[in-house]
Amino acid sequence: MKEMKMTFRWYGADDPVSLEYISQIPGMTGIVSAVYDVPPGKEWSAESIAAVKTAANAHNLAFEVVESVPVHEDIKLGKPSRDEYIEVYRRNVKKLADAGVKVICYNFMPVFDWLRSDLSHKNPDGSTCLIYRDAEVLAMDPNTKKLSLPGWDESYTQDGLRALLAEYKSVDEEKLWENMSYFLHGVIPVCEENGIKMAIHPDDPPWGIFGLPRVITNKKNLERFCKLYDSEYNGLTLCTGSLGSSASNDVVDMIRHFGAMRRIHFLHARNIKLTGPRDFNETGHRSEDGSLDMYDILRAAWDVDFNGYIRPDHGRMIWGETGRPGYGLYDRALGATYINGIWEAINKTMCDRK
């Protein structure tokens, strides 16, 4: 029987979803969390890391995956100050390894993390979900208008955001690749020394926005990324919803390819429904609810002997629940149970054949 480790995102003590409730989800082994009150580029205290671990362990949950240790913009921009921030990152890696963390999920997206046009789109059944409409997002171009965009970092002032965007005008895709390589060569050796794996998250959505470069977008680019520092410790968070939001990406093929290379350290299982070119709705996890086949995804993971960490990614808000968009309890718990059910069925079917 092949095993993977089912985990659940937890945003700390302020998360409306409690560790007690997470621990009650069948098959749940651990949480995915971070130190959320320290800005990018600053060092995490050993005490803060230990507090997350202690809280999780008190509910029989492991804390072995961090999502995320943010990469400071100066590193992405390739500014002279990047060495200082990379050194801080290296110290954070060591502290996390000392606390028993095995995987760090992070991204290299300039300025914006994941972006959506609506965080509470109402479905016909009364549930709400996250959606992306490219035309609506582009109409909110922060270079020319006041930005009101779901999913972006509101710690920036309007002037601060425009100044940062102006700095990126000199950073095209090739320069971003160069800056990413510099970062990896500074960090991965420390990961190898301390037994902790880096797992980059795909750009979400996987295309350029507002003139900013995005490169972790497709199979070809993931291949290039893996070659920037050829080590098992330089790996991927394979997010099915992020990559699958581009119709040109074959997520199942990517899992088979990079899984065989032992580069997938973390799997985000999310379903989306493609509604047009660069438009999509996030859905329940079932295959029939979206454009991605969750059975095929998990069968590919099984076939390449994936035994890493997985979590049910963004869920809808159902049964009257309110909270952090995409990160409610109920739909993600259903997703975890659905995923575990498929995995058990694959395990038993394949073992019977043998």
Describe the structure.
- The protein has helices at 19-23, 46-57, 73-77, 82-98, 134-138, 158-167, 173-194, 219-228, 240-244, 251-260, 294-303, 330-353; strands at 5-9, 30-33, 62-67, 103-106, 118-122, 128-133, 197-200, 234-239, 264-269, 272-276, 279-282, 309-312.
- It has 354 residues and is an alpha/beta fold.
- The chain has a single domain (5-353), classed as Divalent-metal-dependent TIM barrel enzymes (TIM Barrel, Alpha-Beta Barrel), CATH 3.20.20.150.
- The protein has an eight-stranded parallel beta barrel with strand order 1-2-3-4-7-8-9-12, surrounded by four helices.
- Helix 4 (82-98) runs parallel beside helix 7, helix 10 packs parallel to helix 11 (294-303) and helix 11 crosses helix 12 (330-353).
